[in-house]
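Review the following:
>
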Amino acid sequence: MKFVKATICLSVLLALSACSEKETVDSHLTSAKSYLAENKVNESIIALKNAIRIDVKNAEARFLLGKVYLELGDGVAAEKELSRAKSLKYQGKELIPLLARALILTEADDDVIALSTEANSLDKEQHSHFLAYKTLAALRSENIELAKETVASAQSLTEQGQYSLLAQAYLQLAENENEQADLLVKRVLTIDENQPDALMLQGQIATVMKDYSLASESYKRYIQQQPRSGVVQLLLADSLLKAGESEEAEKLADTILAKVANQPFALYIKAMVRFEEQDYKVASELAERALSNNFNQFSLKLVAGASAFYLNNWEQCYYHLNSIVKYLPAEHQGRRMLAVSQLELGLVDEISATLGDFNGEKEADAQFLSSLSFKLLELGATEEAKKLLVQSQAQPTGDANQNARQGILKLMMNDPSGMQDLKDAVKINPEFVEAELALAYASLQANDVEQAKNIANKWQEKYPEKAGGFNLMASVHIKQQDFSKAEQLLEQSLEKESNNLFALTEQLRIARLQQNDELSKQRADNLISLYPQHNKVLRHYFGVYKNEQALSKLAEAYQAKPTDLQKALLYSEALLSLNEIKKAQNVLVNFENDKQLPKRFWQVLVLTYKQLQEQGRVQSTLEQWMKQSPYHLEPVILLADYYANQRNFERALSVIKRGFDSHPDNVILQLLKMQLLLNSKQLQPAKELYQTIAVRDVDDNLKQGLLGRILMLEGKFVQAVPKMENFYKAYTNSQNAIYLAAAYMGNNEKNKAQNHLVTYLKANPDDVRIKALLANLYLGDNNDKALDVYADIIKAQPNNVLVNNNLAWLYLEQGEVDKALFHAKAAIKSGESIPNVVDTYAKVLLKKGDLTGALSQSSRASELAKGKDVDIELNYAEILIANSRQSEARKIIKKITTKTAAQNERKTQLSNQL
């Protein structure tokens, strides 16, 4: 019975509980509706959530909660509740259009369109409401036809209804009918001034029409209606920024970032504001954060690249701007920034493409192109500099500054038309002193003394109290070597402006030109006391004295400014001249990793390693020079020559190939490549390259020489000889004398080759290389003459191994054994690892009767030659027989395979001795 009672009690409790819950859901709904009527949004949400907690399947509570979320602008929460209400069969007529709007906010466009069938049963007003969102969904899905059909349907339902007008406005905006869309939205807002979708659309239309103030106002009103909308806050921040309300935009971005630390659009807004405030470091950091969060907007990349530019971060600047350059207008500042970053990174060949449509029509643009041209010239990229100079001249200019810049650039490129540009600059602006000065000194360089003199006279008349006219006229007289008149003018200059540097340095130059040491020192001392840190003065001072005292002055100047590259170069060059090579190296290595080092730095550093005989460092420095300054031609030539001297022609040719990357049509490199191909006997590639060189503006005699060498490689000596003769006459030097001798020898004209070398030596008696070649040609036919020539060579080069060896052999043949022994010993000192030198020494010792010594040296000669030199093996066999070691001699002779008749005869003689 107790169990029955307990069961009854439980049933009663459950029944009572059910009644209580039903009442509570209803009460919560009633409360919620009451709160909504009083606009107490948070309280209504709590009441509705309480109702749902009690009855999760209460469709009305779900609908009301979804509607509240939608009015707050929380699309995600609204969609969840309204979709649940729909699944619970909520029958309210507002459900479908409100759900459609929630889906629009969550960008679920296909789901909006999928509601079309259910929407067909709605009344006209609600159906029209839905069709507005369907229109927007169709447009966002790029289904224009469906959008047009939907608008037509909306108009047929309620032509002047707010949602029909809204649908039309969406379509008009999509078709770029911005003004018409704006009018439609205004009509909607006349019907309902707080209609959030109309406010949103008005903001978007205003943004397109660049009315950012109206856009900001629209978005602010939208937020008032839909306070939980996250997207509109970003749109508002963007419109505020564009409206010039940077401070307000940044505050809004900070509010967003406080909630979502890496919200990319907010990061972008803040980066834009920081950039405008020239806070480039922070702007760069913010932009990078936004980009790392996959926000790859064009303007963000522009901010990231521009910020990096102002921070001198060339790699980042290039990375960002290079990805968007094709979208930048021709005159956009971003193109300039990218061009500079390319210059700094050594990507010179990309600059022309970056500035391809940059016409230099404006003064600032022309000045930029000229400045960039100067920089390219400093790098050695002459062709690229010329391209930019042409661009800066694209538009006719009446600007004196531009004419002057163009003139100076052209003169730097050895283009004499630059003189006319300078004249035009002075003609446009007769008061343009700098242009006139440049013209005067350019005239002197071009030997147009009269023009320089006219300018100097004009200056003396126009500026009688200034030193410039007197200085210029003094330069004219120095050019004419009228030093007395120049001295007078410089004294007048110093009266006008005491101790002016130009006059004092010109006075010193005159004293040095006249080789007046005492006066040079006096003037150098005066200059250094007045201008102890001036580089030109320091160079003059050391040039006069060239001693430790002068070096100390340079050392003081360098130590006062150890990061000044020009002072470091001055000091290191002075150290080299005084043979303090290691000190010079220590000064220069401090700058090795600097970017865009001048040509002179690398030249001095290479010279330093050469004097230290550190060939490995010479090679690595040339490689580094090529890498850091690819538009310098010198390292390509020097490095190719370095490998060519080592007979490593393939490596030298690979260097030339790399050089063509930066100098694609350079005739010097083509000629150098041709030399390497000829020296390495690569006939076919040489013939192909000759076809290119043949049509270039190259001296015909040089072309004749190249063709002659090709013919020599082909064995066509009859045709080669006249070409090499013409080449030698045009370019008479040691190497070409050897080429001509080789052509004669190949044509079986040995006497002609000998006479040619004799004639050359009459004009060049100290050319040891030609003497050695001549002596070699005499060998065999005229050993007496060969001996005389070798004897002459040995006076200048007493330690020459090969000459000493040949002299030893020739004296041995003449029976002058003591002389032979003297030269054999001299040869063996440095040639103890050369088989023929050791073999000669062995033969001389044999003649001297030193059989043991002879056998020892002959055995070593055989080992060095690895038993493969027939003559050395025959000599070894002879010395073995002389030492009564017939059995060993017999084995040696048996292994010998002779190649000439003389060798065969000697082998027979030795066999007979055995």
In short: The chain has 54 helices and no strands. Confidence is low (pLDDT under 50) at residues 1-22. The two ends are 145 Å apart (CA to CA).
